[in-house]
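To whoever is covering the structure queue this week,

Two jobs came back overnight. Logging them here so there's a record in the thread.

Job A:
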Amino acid sequence: MPLLNKQLRIWLLRYVYLALGGCVLAMVSMGSYCWLVFVPVGASAVLVPSARSLHAHTCVFGAQMCWQTGWHLFIQYKEYWLQEPVDTRLLIAVSSLMLLTQRITSVSMDLQEGKLTGTQSVGTTTSALAPHLAGTQSVGSATSALQYLSYTLYFPGLLGGPLCSFQQFVSFVEQRVSPAPQPLYAVCCKVCWTLGLQWGKCVLVDVMERYSPGLAQLSAVQSTLWVLGLALVFRLSYYSHWALSAGLNNAAGLGFRGYSGRGVPRWDGVSDGDPWTLETCSRPSAFARHWNGTTAAWLRRAVFQRCRTAPLAMTFGFSAWWHGLHPGQVLGFLLWGVAVKADYRIHQHVRPLLTSPATQQLYRGLGWAHTQLLIACVVVAVELRGACFMWLLWKTHISVFLLLYVILLFFLPQKHP
């Protein structure tokens, strides 16, 4: 076997560092539940190479979703049947398992679609390491297995994402774009952004607690504002989580995309969304495309583009399944799917009438207001999860906007191009 040069050793150490860091983080944060993550990683590493590439995705996808769904149902059994509090470590493990499902199935889809060049299985080296391992098949297979384990367990994305493809991960680790500069400035910016979002969330929560009486005592306008405020609290939590996750990935050297035209380092290779883009969306369909961007792209690829019958309904239905099938999640995602479908039909009928800039701006403003009200209902339903909280939401006047989208979906005819 030829001697491994210095660059190769650096690459291998990076993979080991990311994988071992993920193992340690899993054991510390999940305790005895860490095996919920380790079992599917090991099973997929065995299952993918042994299955034919055309069937690997079906096998891996089915096994992974069955494993994840079993633990989601166990959590519901403890919450709703036994009325017992769920161990926080179990919740962390299941949350990490959901992200792991994205990474494992992303690799299986790459194999099925032939996007992993030069290979049809995980057991073959596909990266820049291959030229250094020529003639050493056993070392090459071990190195590729290390790449896969590092990708599925790497600690910056183990608990918070975001999702990146296997090719992107290898490119980041081996720095194929260009040598990455120090990410200190990018990390500091994201940490400051996270702290700012958390401060805004705390201020909003304090205002809602101080000036909000019982929900039954609120007027129609006050109850609408209360739901909007609660939804914004949840969204700020997501935005700060995404910013912190991106900062952690940047700190580990992941997410560098080269330099801009002005020579500024671009550390936006891994990101789940931009708050400004989301909060200015004027259509529910646009919000759905940009919300939790890497998960939305994964759902579009795994479900929407593969379903021939009712792809939109199947995508939102699967999203409820992937999130855990709590009553609020099922209702929230199904209503969101109905609203997106109705939004397409509304736009088809209204677009020919927008003949002047004034009418376009008016339509955009009204669309923004409707989107905010709709997304507030969806976010609150999904986050509160339980049936009792759904009934509480239903008694507020904001639920009228959900009914409006359902009615429009049934009464507006679909225009065919």
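Job B:
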Amino acid sequence: MVLLRTDTHRHIRVVRQENQAKSKLNASQILASLTVSLCSMVVGFASAYTSPALPSMNRPGSPLSVTEEEGSWIGSLMPLAALIGGMAGGPLIESIGRKTTILATGIPFIISFILIAMAVNVQMVMAGRAIAGFCVGVASLGLPVYLGETVQPQVRGTLGLLPTTLGNSGILLCFIAGKYLNWQMLAILGACIPIPFLVCMFLIPETPQWYISRNKSKKAKKALQWLRGKDADVTQEFSEIEKANHMGKNEEMPGYLSLFSKMYSKPLLISMGLMLFQQLSGINAVIFYTVKIFKEAGSTIDENLCTIIVGIVNFLSTFIATGLIDKLGRKILLYASSTTMAVTLITLGTFFNYKNNGYDVSQYGWLPLVSFVFFIIGFAIGFGPIPWLMMGEILPAKIRGTAASLATAFNWACTFLVTKTFADLLRVFGTDGTFWMFGGICLMGLIFIIFCVPETQGKSLEDIERNLTGVGKGPVRQVRRMSSIAHLKPLPMAI
């Protein structure tokens, strides 16, 4: 009887220790994910800035007056500079590390907003947008790579959506603040947002994979132990990271042309395809010109209020994806995303078609808002976060920095193209034809997902790489999903 009681107590202690290890493991990963994702909040605020700021610049009393062409360049300079930032980000994350690269964007972000706030001419605003855009390009590359290398497969989908969640909160904050602040005060608010991100970055480690690539094994193991919890056994995982590094250590680092070799072309083209259909859905044109679109629609609801509603929906929709991505998988959400966006864009195009042809659509003044809401929901649950998440998953380790740089630059090139030409598309094809075109592209994206995109749910990065490149191909190991919030307890250090 005494022995039985002793065994029972011992079993309880073991279970308690395992649960404590899991809580620290999850809490550490959430701290790391949340910290780097604070940078995404700055990215979201910077991306949405032009929507409330441009109308404010032409209001009475503003020291600036912006023409339609200048406004077009202010809106599109950020994605153009982000293209350059995306190309520069690849060499940076390989040379100075993932964490340091993300951290290095903080001060320039602050400078960009201060420059805009102090602007006495349009050129200063453009310079600030260009600096912010460069940082956005670097950050949008660094974030998914950092998360892909630090978060375990069991929760990689859930935690991998944190950048999107906080990015959408930045958009929402900009929309709400933009209703009450002029463009200068809004820029000052933007300069304050990177401060918590800068402070918190000093609490987290560099990725173990980068340390290993620099022959810093002790620091790599220490970083991995911190990420998994001090009681976790990291021996096997650390061995796999070392093995993956040693396999390609003596090989020549691939250049940009090598990315299109037979071995690497498939994962790269899948990643670029996802980026293409993400941006050609017209999402950034919608975000940048939300106020203008609602004004032209003649909506019966105040355009600024409509913008805030869209921002709230955008923010809340990310939680739907967060809860479903590790249960349903990436492809199911992409199916739902592309279908929803296509239907809503075609509906929106039809509304404008009737309006432009002289029909009385005043009783349907609510339709643009409803269409926008469901369009944003569709984007936020799939094509918004998943292309970035999958970029960190499907690109092979050997080319991850170079390929991610190319994919990110391609994404921002598409963003610039859509944003800069959006006003021209409206003039040439009309509002109805433009939205119908975007809806047709979303249907093409659905076909691409069905036939070309693999499912990565619950698979390790090494297994995904073997499956896509064919190197050392074997059976793919499925990883049991673990809730990202199970056994979670607060850390002693608060964010």
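Note for Job B: Confidence is low (pLDDT under 50) at residues 1-25, 473-495.

Please reply-all if you pick these up so we don't duplicate work.
Q.
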